Amino acid sequence: MRLTLFALFLFAPAALAQPNPEPKDGKVTIPLTLHPTAAPKPLSRYYLTPQYIDMQPGNRVPGFMKAYMEQHAFFSKEPAEQREKWNQTPLADLPVDDIKKSGVIGGLMHRKDFTDFTESAGRPLSDVDEAARLLTTDWQVWFNIRRDGIGTLLPEVQKMRELASVLKVRMRYEVKTGDFEKAAYSARTFYGLASALENHPTLICLLVAVAIETIGLNAVEEMIQQPGCPNLYWSFTEMPADVFSSRLATQGERVIIHAHFKSLVDNTVMSDAEAKTMAETIDRLTRMIGPDGKAEESKFSARFAAQAADEKKVAAFRQELIAAGRKADAVNKFPPLQVAMAHNLLRYDILLDEFYRHMHLPHAEAMKLAAEAEAKLKDDADAVLARQLLPSITKVRSALTRVQQRVAYLRVVEAVRLYAHDNGGKLPEKLADIKLPLPLDPVTGKEFSYSVKDGVATLTGGNPNPDQAATNRVYELRVKK
Q: pLDDT for 25-45, tens place per residue?
C-alpha cells in the first residue's frame, strides 16, 4: 500500500467495519434489546482500554508484526475469507465449534484452554494481545517520509487490518459463549491495536485507527445486548473523550509534502533549467495523486509558467516570500519560475495551517471553519499546489467525530440500561431522570435527543456527515426483563 494524500480517501477504511442496516428515510435505525444488569465489581475488569497494570516496556509495532511470523497458512486467502464470513454471520448463528478449531481462539487469556503447547498456545492473537499492552509505539518512518514523501510504503497498515478481522472473530466467539470478561479483554486489545495507528504521522493511518476501533465497537454493541453482560457505562466513561488525537498525523502531512520540495524550502537559488526540471517533477507528482484535467494548459508546469510570465505577480510573490521570513538577497535572485513555485509552497503552508487550526475545536465549530477555509481555497487562483495537495480535513474530522459519537451513544445506552436495572426494568422517561453524568453529542455539542413511546426509547444525535444517510444513526431501545 502506498501513502498518498488523495488516495487515502479512496481507501475507504469504513469498509472494514460491519455494515450498518441500509438507510431508510435518511437514517439508519439500530434496534437494541437491553437486559438490565448492574455494573461489575471491580469496574476495571471490564474496562475497554489497556490498563497500565497489564503493560510492559516495548514497541507495539514489531509486536504486532510478530503475530505473522510462521503463520503463513493461518493468514492465507481461504482462512481469511472464512473469517470474514463469520464476521458477517449473525451472532445467533455463529458456528462456535468451527471457530475454535480454526485456531482463532488464542491469546493471553485463553492459554489455559490449551493443554498441549504444540497445538497453538494462543498464537497469533497472544502476540497481538501482548503487543497491544506495550508502552511505546515507533513506526520508524521518520526517515522514510522525509525521503519518499507520498511514495512512502506502508505494508504494515494492511497487516493491522487483517489482525482486526481475526480479533473480531475471537471477540464475537467470546460474546456468543457468554465469556464477557474475555470479550472485554479483546476490546482492550482492539483499542491497543487501533491507538498504535494514532501514533503514525499520516492521515491514512489515523483513518485506519478509526476503522479498527469501529470494528471493535460493533462487537461491543453486540455484547451489551446479551443476557448477563455486565453494565459498561463506567467502561465507556473511562475511555479518552477524543478517542484518538490527530496531532501527529496532521503535522506529518506537511513533512510529506515538503519532502518533494526541499529546494523550494531553503534559500538556494536555482538556474532556469533547474526550475523547469522542478516544475516537471511537480507534474509527475500530481499525476500520482490524481489527474487535474487532460489539457496541456492544466499541467502545473504550465500554470507556474503563466504566473512567472506576469511581472507584477512575480514582484508581489517576492515580497510575500520575504515577509514570510525568506532571505531577501536570495529571493531577489530567484528566477521567476522559482518564485512562482516557492510562492505556491508558501500558500500551501498558509492554507494548511488554516485547515488544521480548527481540528481540535468542537465538531460544529470545526466544520463551520473548515467550510470557510475550503471556500477560500476555491477562490484563491494563485494557490495551484494547495488546491491539489491539501487533504480533505473535513473528512478526517468527521471520521474522528463518528467514533467519538459512537462511544458517547453507547455510554448513554448503558446509562439507560443501568437505570432500568435500578428501577424494575423501566426505561427512563427522559435522560434527566438518569442520575449519572451523560455525555453531550460530539456532533452538536448538545444533549442527545431522547423520547419514549409504547415501551421503546428513541435515542438520536446529529449526523457527522449531513450528506450521508449511512452515518445518521438512530437507536431504538427496548428492555427485556
A: 889 999 999 999 999 999 999
Contact 264, 73 (CB under 8 A): no
Residue 64 and residue 127 in contact, taking contact as beta carbons nearer than 8 Å: yes
Q: What is the DSSP string of 132-153?
A: TTEEE-----HHHHHHHGGG-B
The answer to whether residue 133 scores a pLDDT higher than 60 is: yes
Residue 91 and residue 258: Cα distance in Å, rounded?
Answer: 48
Cell of 409: 451513544
Residues 182-208 pLDDT 10s: 999 999 999 999 999 999 999 889 999
Q: 286-289 long-range CB contacts below 8 Å, 24 or more apart?
A: 286/388, 286/389, 288/4, 288/150, 288/151, 289/4, 289/5, 289/6, 289/7, 289/150, 289/388, 289/389
Cα gap 249→18, rounded to integer Å = 25
Which one is predicted more confidently, 88 or 360?
88
Please check the confidence at residue 391 and state whether its pLDDT lies above 90. no
Q: Are strands 449-453 and 456-460 parallel, antiparallel or unpaired?
A: antiparallel
The C-alpha R_g of the chain, in whole angstroms, comes to: 26
278 and 269 in contact (C-beta within 8 Å)? no
Q: Is the pLDDT of residue 296 over 70?
A: no
β-bridge mates for residue 473, sequence order: 28
Contacts of 329 (CB under 8 A, 6+ apart): none
pLDDT at position 293 is: 41
CB 156 within 8 A of CB 139: yes
CA distances from 86 to 90, 98, 109, 190, 229 (A): 8, 10, 22, 18, 22
Report residue 84's pLDDT band, with 50, 70 and 90 as the boundaries.
very high
User: Which of 322, 202, 194, 177 is CA-nearest to residue 255?
Assistant: 202
Beta bridge partners of 34: 479
Least trusted range by pLDDT, from 4-13, 53-62, 239-248, 344-353: 4-13
451 phi, psi to nearest 5 deg: -150, 160
**Around 379, how many Cα atoms within 13 Å sit in the side-chain half-sphere?**
6
Share of the chain above pLDDT 90, in %: 59
- What average pLDDT does the chain have? 87
Give which of 367, 250, 350, 274 is closest to 8, Cα–Cα. 250
Q: What is the phi/psi pair of residue 58, to 5°?
A: 145, 165
Which of 102-114 are b and which e, b meaning 16 or more Cβ less than 10 Å from the residue's Cβ? Answer: bbbbbbbbbeeee
**Rounded CA separation 299/294 (Å):** 8
For residues 469 and 28, the answer to whether their CB atoms sit within 8 Å is yes
3-state secondary structure of 430: coil
Task: Report the distance separating Cα 29 and Cα 383, nearest Å.
Answer: 43
